[in-house]
Amino acid sequence: MRARLALVAVLTAAACGKTTQEMGAKLAGPSAVAPYRGYSQEDPANVRDYLAVASARADELRILDLSDEKPLLAPVQFAPLSVPTGSRPARLASASLHDGGADALVVVPGGTAEVQLVETWTTSTRVVPGATVDLDALAGRAEILSLAGAPEPVWDPGTSSWVPAPGRARILVGLTEGRVAVVPL
Predict the structure, then answer these.
(1) In what order do the strands lie in the sheet with 133-134?
(2) pTM for the whole thing?
(3) Separation of alpha carbons 72 and 92, rounded Å
(4) Which run of H or E residues covers position 8?
């Protein structure tokens, strides 16, 4: 009887000791990650550092705040923010626009040659409708093997060198058959 009362006391103390539970990112088959700078509903006035994580089994991106490593919450605040993408997002890349604002972030759904732009410059954080580049139309039956963000270079006569163009960047896309595509942003 004493053991049972001790067990009840321990369980009651444990239940009363913690009133909230931290929410995890709830990732479903993480397939790619990319750090980027952008805006969010949690801090709409400031550009902050985030980590986009592609969840291939859930057809979405989850966003982690790099300052505290916690997921951004959905507007209803009961679940992590979900950014729907094409099926099975497989690749992510970001590129600085070298203008002090948000970075460009792109996602490639698995089995496609589409590069989708994610809105990071507002608090919407969504795939931008109509801003998808289909590389099949340009490269014919291409398969995307890799992505990388890069600055758009511009010649600076003052320094006699190439410098990043403010407000511009590009995504370098490694394709099958030894090809590379350049997607300007």
Answers:
(1) 89-95, 104-109, 114-118, 133-134
(2) 0.83
(3) 18
(4) helix 2-17
4-22, pLDDT tens digit by residue? 434 333 333 444 444 444 5
Whole-angstrom Cα distance, residue 113 to residue 139? 9
Please answer whether residues 116 and 85 qualify as being in contact, where contact means their C-beta atoms are separated by less than 8 angstroms. yes
- Write out 133-155 in H/E/C secondary structure: EEHHHHHCCCCEEEEEEEEEEEE
Amino acid at 89: P
Q: Using alpha carbons only, what angle is made at residue 93 by residues 89 and 99, rounded to the nearest 5 degrees?
A: 140
What distance in Å separates the CA atoms of residue 65 and residue 51, rounded to the nearest whole number?
7
Query: What is the DSSP secondary structure assignment for residue 98, as one 8-state letter?
Result: S
Amino acid found at 174:
G
Q: Report residue 89 as tokens.
A: 């997002």
